[in-house]
Specification:
The complex is a heterodimer of chains A (about 210) and B (about 230).
Chain A: E1 2-10, E2 21-25, E3 30-34, H1 41-48, H2 51-54, E4 59-66, H3 76-82, E5 83-86, H4 90-93, H5 99-109, H6 114-128, H7 143-155, E6 161-165, H8 173-188, E7 192-196, H9 200-206, E8 209-212
Parallel strand pairs in A: 3-7, 3-8, 5-6, 6-7
Antiparallel strand pairs in A: 1-2, 1-4
Helix pairs in contact in A: 5-6, 5-7, 6-7, 7-8
Chain B: H1 5-21, H2 25-42, H3 46-52, H4 54-70, H5 74-99, H6 103-112, H7 117-146, H8 156-187, H9 206-228
Classes of the chains: A alpha/beta (about 210), B mainly alpha (about 230).
């Protein structure tokens, strides 16, 4: 699914963030990236999904291959179907008027027909338990529900690789348990995941192995 | 029964055009009356908007007074002031009409009016950032006050200086949030194709067609009035 060969990166005018990394992640596997704050875990995820260097300038060394090709060489539409990412702050990821429209946003961008959209939106919202709140504004949801909604908005696109950048770190214990239940279900269904999380117990429950940056 | 937002957008565009091109207060009066009726019919959140724009009302009164006093003949000045006042009120009422729809409905209307979707989303997300900027600025101000700075006791010049200091982190945080949002949107395929499909497209019903016919008739009437009077 994804392979890193002696890969490292540096922001302009700065030193390499981490020592060259060499690892691969097969389909259906779940792996955690760990390390101290500021070591470059999020940056590595951004590189995996092509945001570095497309949106954020950085000097890349070594090779990173997503389905055998560098992330930047996939077309944006292909890319959306390959990788999905949930980031730490759900507030920033949600911008549509209703829960339902939020989930449909990605499908609209990919020109998915309306009938198929309706089915997929329903499935994604039922998976995270938010179907009953589909007509409400995302702003009225709790923090945990917002993060579940952000996850549903990514899952509806059926990405082959799911990246989670400290997606559980801002949640209270109940919300975290809900999110963990959804993620554990995804893992059982064979979803490939690359996770950045500071909590050892959560990593142990969600991941097959860990890489220390 | 709510009218299709595309008809409302057309009506607001016509209202604003008449407000700008009509220079006689007597021509402007029926436009103003139409705008008030439309706002009442649409049950637009006029009072909420008026409360929010308290500063604008002070400016309106100031402009009216200034226009009246600046003219050589006070009656001519009063007429100019009435025109300016009516113009601004019409524009505000147009805003209130648009505010009666939620953001996503307006975006969908703009998309179906063939506006490029990048532009429609830029408008809607830009508007979403305005309260976020205000919130971020207030947070910084509160943080400063909690550290013992009492703004009420400071001189005007010092207060302005403090506001300038606070502006920089607020703008920086806004830019940071905007970049993160752009990343989240790109990861969900925004801009992947030239066009997009719609999950909840707007459909014209019989009463929308009726409203469209009324708007066209009304616009023709306003133009005729302008020509005749």
């Amino acid at each position: 699914m994804i392979e890193l060969r002696e890969f490292t990166l540096a922001y302009p005018g700065k030193e390499n963030l981490f020592a060259p990394q060499h690892f691969s992640l097969a389909a259906g596997e779940s792996m955690a990236l760990c390390g101290d704050s500021g070591v470059g875990k999020s940056s590595l995820l951004y590189a995996c999904c092509g945001l570095i260097p497309r949106q954020i300038a950085a000097d890349l060394q070594g090779e990173i291959l997503l389905q055998g090709k560098p992330p930047a060489s996939h077309s944006p539409a292909e890319h959306t179907k390959l990788v999905g990412m949930v980031i730490q702050n759900p507030e920033i990821q949600l911008f549509c008027g209703t829960v339902e429209l939020e989930v449909a946003f990605g499908l609209e961008n990919l020109c998915v027909p309306r009938e198929e959209m309706q089915t997929r939106v329903r499935e994604a919202l039922e998976l995270v338990g938010l179907w009953a709140r589909r007509g409400e504004s995302p702003s009225v949801l709790s923090g945990g529900q917002k993060q579940l909604l952000a996850l549903a908005s990514v899952l509806v696109l059926q990405p082959k690789l799911l990246l989670l950048d400290e997606a559980l770190s801002q949640l209270d214990s109940d919300a975290c348990a809900n999110m963990m239940a959804v993620l554990s279900g995804l893992r059982k269904r064979g979803q490939t995941m690359l996770i950045v999380d500071h909590d050892k117990n959560r990593r142990a429950k969600l991941c097959d192995r860990e890489i220390l940056l | 029964m709510k009218v299709d937002p595309r008809i409302t957008i057309l009506f607001v565009l016509l209202l604003s055009t008449f407000a700008v091109i009509f220079r006689n207060p007597w021509h402007m009066l029926p436009v103003l009356v139409s705008a008030i009726i439309a706002v009442l019919l649409a049950r637009a959140p006029l009072l909420k908007l008026l409360r929010r724009l308290r500063g604008v009302w002070i400016m309106l009164i100031f402009v009216t007074l200034l226009q009246t006093l600046a003219a050589q003949n006070w009656l001519a000045g009063l007429l100019i002031a009435a025109t300016v006042l009516q113009r601004l009120v019409i524009l505000l009422l147009g805003g209130a009409l648009l505010a009666s729809f939620s953001g996503h409905v307006l975006v969908q209307a703009l998309l179906q009016l063939r506006m490029p979707y990048q532009l429609a989303f830029m408008l809607s997300i830009g508007l979403r950032f305005v309260p976020l900027f205000g919130e971020s600025f207030r947070d910084s101000l509160n943080a400063m006050q909690l550290r013992g700075v009492d703004l009420r006791k400071l001189k005007f010049r010092t207060r302005v200086k403090i506001y300038t200091w606070l502006l920089m982190p607020t703008v920086a945080s806004g830019v940071h949030q905007a970049r993160k949002l752009a990343m989240a949107m790109e990861l969900r395929g925004f801009g992947a194709h030239e066009c997009r499909t719609a999950y909840a497209p707007l459909c014209m019903r019989w009463h929308d067609w009726l409203a469209l016919a009324l708007v066209i008739l009304w616009a023709a009437g306003m133009i005729a009035l302008r020509v005749v009077l």
